[in-house]
Amino acid sequence: MLLGSSVLSRACSRRAPSLSCAIGSRSQQLQELISCQKKKTTFVSASSSITAISAVRSGGGGAARAYSCDSAATGGLQRLENSDQNFAAGVIGTGYFAQNHLSSWAELEGVDVTALCDIDSARLQATAANFNVPDSRCFMNASALFDAVGEGKLDLDFVDIVTQVDTHFDLVTQAAAAGLHVICQKPFATSVEQGVEMVEACDRAGVQLMVHENWRWQPAIVALQTELAAGAVGDPYYTQISFRTPYDVYASQPYLAEGDRFIIEDLGIHLLDVARAIMGEPESMYCRTYRGNPRIKGEDMATMVLGYEGGQSCVVDCSYASSEAPDPFPETFIRVEGSEGTIELSRHGFCLSIYRGDRLHSQRTVPPAAERTYHASPVEVIQDSVYNCQQHWIDCMAGREAWPSSTSGRDNLNTLALVDAAYDSASVQQAVPVTSPFV
Question: What is the model's pTM?
Fold first, then answer.
């Protein structure tokens, strides 16, 4: 569950997409996974069944693209020729957070956003002007975009869906039916059951589905995972992940105040995904929630305790109703204790410290990229995570990383299951078992 090695050659080694919830020999497992990753090849296996998909697709400049899908080995898209040809992306949704996606696509090499879709005409036109997408490739109806692909009027390799969760099922299944690979914003489904349907639809269509779960791609969190993969603390037995802030998240995303579910589904899901990346799959969940802001509908505080088969535990807590100065937003506190030491990521200044017994072993700062400021500070670290997440997708598309992506739809069902378990536990005020759909 660690991150892709092409992106993380700049930061971290990639962990296998599945891991047993029993993590007693975790350090050994991580070392084996690193070893396997180093041996990984990125070419199409001669022993697999290879079928051509979109054998020749004309690019925006008229150049041909040829692809091959290796379903047995990677299930992925490999560019066989014209490797200098950029991938063509369509972005569905041009709202607040979509601007981070679009800015990252504009900065990344190997990809062009060639189509946009949004039901808000003014927002669509403004975004198209900002990112140089012609009016002829702007759609106010997603079905019209997919029809244009099917009719050969629009050439796309994938779509990036940055809309609210109640639209995801229709958009993902339509994209799969059109033969397009899919990135989908989190939470990618309204339920685990619906998510399974979406994953299966993409599997049947032979297309890849990645959930845009960007939190684990923050530079400081990547650095922490790198240290864990190298055995910095031995076998982890306790983790705390905390995100508490007075930040007014509703100012830029007012719809967050309107849902029955709020902080676990919107923010806690990120932290639970990081917990999985660090500790693996839990067997139990205990959660308590609270609403401190009377002007919102859902919960704005949550504390979750994840239990593991070997007795290990992870405490995840989050709040948008805290008081603190200076505001640590958007930094995450993480502490991992293990058999050989403790690693801690601070909430002020991205300071990463490793302790051995009662001594400080090492300490360094892992700041965000100062030049990447698409919105007002201090959200650079979030923008970094979006960029790194999308870089990983392009690395998979280009064959520099093996499919599935680190946050594939199938993998992310396990994160979604933790969200459901948290709400179930909070409703009965007792621990509940966790059933991971895919381990």
Answer: 0.82
